[in-house]
Amino acid sequence: MLAIHGAFASLLEPATANGDFGLYPARNFRITTGTCTDCPTIRQALWYFRDETIAVPVSGLPVASFTPGVHAHDDVRQWAAIRETSAAPEYPPLVWIAAPQILRHASIGADPRELHTAQGVVPFAPIDKIPLNRSYFDASSIAFFRDRALTVRGAPGPDGFVVRTFWPEGWGVGPAAPPPRALPAAPSEPEAMRALMREAPRGGAQSPYQASTLWQRGKSTEGDRAAWVGRPVLGFMVNGAQGDDDEAQGGHFALVTGRVQADGSIGNWLVNNFYSLDVESEKGIIAAPLPLDNYLADLNSGQGWYRPTTMVVAVLRDERAAALVQAALNRVFNQFYRHQLEYYHPNENCASISVDTLRGLGWSVPARGASSRLLAWIGFPFMAIKERSIGKAKLGFDYLRTDQTRLMPASALEEIFGSLMAMTRGQQAADHGVLAQMLMEDMDALTYLHFPQFPSSRAFGDAPAVTTWEYRSRIPNDPALVQIVPVPPRPFPVALRDPDLLPHTLRPSDYAAGLWGVLTIVGIPFVLRRAWGWWRRRRANQ
Questions:
Q1: Does the CA dihedral 42-45-49-50 come out positive or negative?
Q2: 173 CB contacts (<8 Å, ≥6 apart)?
């Protein structure tokens, strides 16, 4: 087998040899792991990736920092206020590439253990399934990928190439503009986006990949389309509901940056994935910036194995807006790894962290308001009694009280799309700032991308729930039928906590618990005492 290894080794290339990571040339990174001792990356970030393959900026490049002693979103606002538009791009602390090598233009042949290339045949095996993962690559996956041109990420093993990611090379944007399509008829543009996400059964989980142009500045000509090559992009991605995890009915949100490539490839666009650091994901997910093909197609952690995906992409004439967003997210990741910003599903989740960053940069993404503040307050004691848990009552309170664009990924995408379409007409909200102005001036097209779910042993997913009420309607009333994947905690080491970390601020549910606690301790005895006095007076008058 050593001879086979030598034969195909020349077909592989390092993950940093060609192309980009989003807006950054891949050659400006080096491959390592989180155990490195000379990386320009904060120690907290390296701790999470000590057993993972990462790419870090080479020496001498500006790497994103952070401001000590402030909340992550205050850090973004303060940094953006003094940042020069022409400032050099600040590199991310790391990019999670997961595998050190790439095999391009491959296909699975008649033998499902072989990858065929123009230069020869490469034996392969998929990377092992994570034990907690409930499903995996199977015969249906082989059938889906067979005879497609693939980019494959992995590492050489003793018996061939150990594959971590299969990515269809036909999924792309450019070099010409995708075909135009009209928005579905709807009362508003946000609702038209919802109709797009739901136009196919199960949110398009089993529909083909689709790329279309929803808007383009001016009249499209062949020259205009050719000019797309090299254009920077800013993408807004929502992954749908999972088919076998009721906690994931709301979907997942991420911001994406990159460039239109001459061959139309999008696998190297950079996805900024915020995910809880304090649990061991059953899929092996770790919050990080990572290439789009890894984000969607990693055999364990790829979102494309669990649900369909929608992305709206703004094609820009200048990179300044995308660079501003990416640089800000790089700072947020530093604060996230440090635990200055901690993941809390009701209001510090994938959607809220992303939307708060956009708003902090000067784009007033319209808010939809809370699901119901009144119900949150009134329902608190009933939830506590029903669940026999103050903690669950507090969680439910915070869900109901959070602005829906910060809570529900689909809601965030709908409002972002509506705001972008308003910008195409020159409409600018009074409180828009720098980022919104950049987008209004630089946006040349809006494209819509639909990614199906990869077939595997997992149930197919669906379009994401848009509201908390829809989310609740999808969950079985019988608790025994609710599908939840238990995951172990991943405690943050005390030794990694920097001294400047701010103390935890009280959440809205803390005030609700306090008020209802006072009413319970003081109010109920008071009511009982008044009732006792009324009963005694009544008896005395009889």
A1: positive
A2: 211, 233, 260, 264, 266, 313, 447, 449
Give percent of the chain with pLDDT exceeding 90. 70
| Domain parsing of the chain, residue ranges | 2-165, 194-363+405-468, 369-402+506-536
For 163, what's the count of Cα atoms within 13 Å in the CB-facing half-sphere? Answer: 25
pLDDT one-digit tens code per residue, 104-159: 999 998 888 989 988 888 899 999 999 999 889 999 999 999 989 999 999 998 88
Rounded CA separation 39/337 (Å): 15
- With H, G, I as helix, E, B as strand and everything else as coil, classify residue 328: helix
Task: Please report the pLDDT score of residue 526 as a whole number.
Answer: 46
Token pair for residue 57? 């900026």
What contacts 386, CB < 8 A, 6 or more positions away?
Answer: none
Give yes or no for a contact between 313 and 160, defined as CB atoms under 8 angstroms apart: no
Q: Which two tokens stand for residue 319?
A: 């990179």
176 in Cβ contact with 184 (< 8 Å): no
One-letter identity of residue 149: A
Phi, psi of 254 (to 5 degrees): -155, 150
The residues, ordered by sequence, that sit 6+ positions from 524 with a Cβ below 8 Å of its Cβ are none
Of the chain, the end-to-end C-alpha distance in Å amounts to 102
DSSP-based three-state secondary structure for 482: coil
At 353-362, the pLDDT tens digits run: 999 999 999 9
For residue 214, what are its two tokens? 């929803």
Element (H, E) at 442: helix 434-442
